[in-house]
Amino acid sequence: MANDTYMSLEEVAEFLGVTYQLIYKLVRSGSLPAARLGKIYRVSRADLERYLESSKAPASGGTCSVCGTVYKSAGSLKNTCGEDGCEEPICFDCWTRLGVRRCKKHAKS
Ligand SMILES: [Zn+2]
Ligand SMILES: [Zn+2]
Asked: Domain residue spans in the chain?
C-alpha cells in the first residue's frame, strides 16, 4: 500500500478481507466516513481505524439495542437491525421469541 493516508474502497475491502459491496454500503450509509471525489470514494486510514475501533466493542459482547440487556459474549447478539447500514445488535431473545428485526430507532410502530 503505497499511499498510506487514503485508501480506495477496493483497498479497504481487500485490507479487511470483505467484499467491495460491504464497504460501499458502509460508506453510503455513513457508517464509514469517506471523502468523495466525483464518483470515487477515498477512506482515510485514521477514519478506518476509528471505525474499526468503534465496531470492535459488540464483537466481545454488547448491549441489545431493543431490550437493553447486556451480554458478555457476542454469541447472543449475532443478529443486527435489518435497516440498510444499521449495525445495531438485536439479541437472540428479541430476535427469536419476539420476532424483532429492527432496532428501536428503525422500528416501525
Ligand atoms: Zn433484546
Ligand atoms: Zn437500526
From this structure: 6-55, 61-97
